[in-house]
Specification:
This is Arsenate reductase. The chain is of the alpha+beta class. It has seven helices and four strands; from the N terminus they run E-H-E-H-H-H-H-H-E-E-H.
Length: about 120
């Protein structure tokens, strides 16, 4: 299991804490330090939809120019923006055996998936 995110993100902290308290010991991938690939973003977009992977409610998105925001109309353009602004990725993303299974943190959803 790999949890992708940023260590100081409250949602990532909640997800990691929940996983650890429930007996999981996931690897953590800090995509601010380790980066993220277009291939990985495409897999997440295929699994969840690009609109779910791109966090339009976050500060990073809101700070982007309106020109950049309006440019994002599909998966390809969303990934281009996310590669340049990886803090705009919805987080955390949890993968098991290399497959993306969860995005964000919802305790009820985690209970269903991991119990």
């Amino acid at each position: 299991m790999i949890v992708y995110g940023i260590p100081n993100c409250n949602t990532v902290k909640k997800a990691r804490t929940w996983l650890e308290e429930n007996g999981f010991n996931p690897e953590f991938h800090d995509f601010k330090k380790k980066g993220i690939t277009a291939e990985k973003l495409n897999a997440w977009c295929d699994a969840f939809g690009w609109e779910a992977v791109l966090n339009k409610k976050g500060t990073t998105w809101k700070k982007l120019s309106s020109d950049v925001q309006q440019m994002v109309t599909d998966q390809k353009t969303a990934i281009e923006v996310l590669l340049q602004n990886n803090s705009a990725i919805k987080r955390p993303v949890v993968e098991v055996d290399g497959k993306p299974i969860l995005i964000s943190f919802n305790e009820d959803q985690y209970k269903v998936v991991f119990k």
